[in-house]
Amino acid sequence: MLVPARCTQCSATIEVDDAKEAGICQFCNTAFITQKAIHEHHTHITKNITKNVFSIDGKTAEDFCANGDTFLKLKDWEKAQEAFDKAVEAEPTNYKGYWGLVKTWTENFTDYYDVGHKEHIPRALNLSSGDEKAVIETQYNEYQKRCEAIAPLKAKHDRFFKLFGWCGALGVLMIIAIGITAMVIGLLAAEGYPVNWLTLAWMSIPVGVFIIGFSIGLDLCVRADKKIDAYKKEHFGESEEDEKNINIEKTATNTNDKTDNTNNT
Predict the structure, then answer these.
(1) How far apart are CA 108 and CA 152, in angstroms?
(2) Positive/negative CA dihedral, 123, 93, 132, 102
(3) Which among 102, 158, 192, 233 is most buried, taking Cβ atoms within 10 Å?
(4) How many whole angstroms separate alpha carbon 161 and alpha carbon 152?
(5) Rounded-to-integer distance, Cα 82 and Cα 73, Å
(6) How far apart are CA 171 and CA 166, in angstroms?
């Protein structure tokens, strides 16, 4: 019986007699083994079906993941997320899209405070297997260890920042209250009422206390940030300052490119 097949040499679509062990391609005159030619045809059809079902505008999940990995290297997190979101949309059963989103949300495992990635990591683990799953588990476990190491320093920073915020809010309320009081005293003095200006002088003391407290709170926040940055640089070989320098260089490069394009135009 004649069945569809695919030449193993020129990839032309042919018909073969499945009762025969071999044949000759009518297009390139190359001999082929019948079962291999039939298998080649089935493989080709399966790939086309997969590409049509799991694709968006002709691009597969693999294509979107490749784009996402490129944006990760460029530290363009927004575009990386768009690429991996499309990969998940194109093929929801492919672990690579979810794993890419984990790397994007954590900024390639440098953001130790992110929680958005946690909805994607279970899917990446469940859909992966074998060596791929082992790689994911190894990298993610290392990331979690870093998060746990940073957590106590981050908690201290948050306490200082909360103190800084309360000092700021209290200081604003003090300034408003003193301002209103000074205005009332001034109006009373204008109407001829006796005013004790010493009261207003005493009221300036809380303002000084606020300024001192505000300054101390700000200094504690800055010190906590520096301590976290130093810890990351010592243990992980990275720091916020390095990230800032990279972003500055990236911005400068983009600006130079735009200037060159404008001059060329």
Answers:
(1) 22
(2) negative
(3) 102
(4) 14
(5) 15
(6) 8
Q: What is the pLDDT of residues 174-202, one digit of tens each?
A: 667 767 777 776 776 677 766 666 665 66
Structure tokens at 11: 């990839």
In DSSP notation, 1-53 reads -EEEEE-TTT--EEEEETTSSEEE-TTT--EEEHHHHHHHHHHHHHHHHHHHH
Residues 6+ apart with CB under 8 A from 4: 13, 14, 15, 38, 41
Counting beta carbons within 10 angstroms of the beta carbon of residue 108, is it exposed (0 to 12), middle (13 to 18) or buried (19 or more)? middle
Residue 15: what are its φ and ψ, rounded to 5°?
A: -115, 135
CB 102 within 8 A of CB 120: yes
The answer to whether the pTM exceeds 0.70 is no
Radius of gyration for the alpha carbons in the chain, expressed in angstroms and rounded: 33
Amino acid at 32: F
Alpha-carbon distance of 3 to 134, in angstroms, equals 42
- Tokens standing for residue 66: 């490749």
Q: Could you give the 3-state DSSP secondary structure of residue 32?
A: strand
DSSP state of 20: S
Burial letters 122-139, b for 16+ CB under 10 A, else e: ebbbebbeeeeeeebeee
Structure tokens at 89: 């949309």
Which DSSP string do the residues of 57-95 spell out, in sequence order? Answer: TTEEHHHHHHHHHHHHHTT-HHHHHHHHHHHHHH-TT-H
Percentage of residues in the chain with pLDDT exceeding 70? 56
Residues in the chain: 265
Q: Is 43 exposed, middle or buried (0-12, 13-18, 19+ CB in 10 A)?
A: exposed
3-class DSSP assignment, residue 128: coil
Report pLDDT for 137. Answer: 92
DSSP state of 29: -
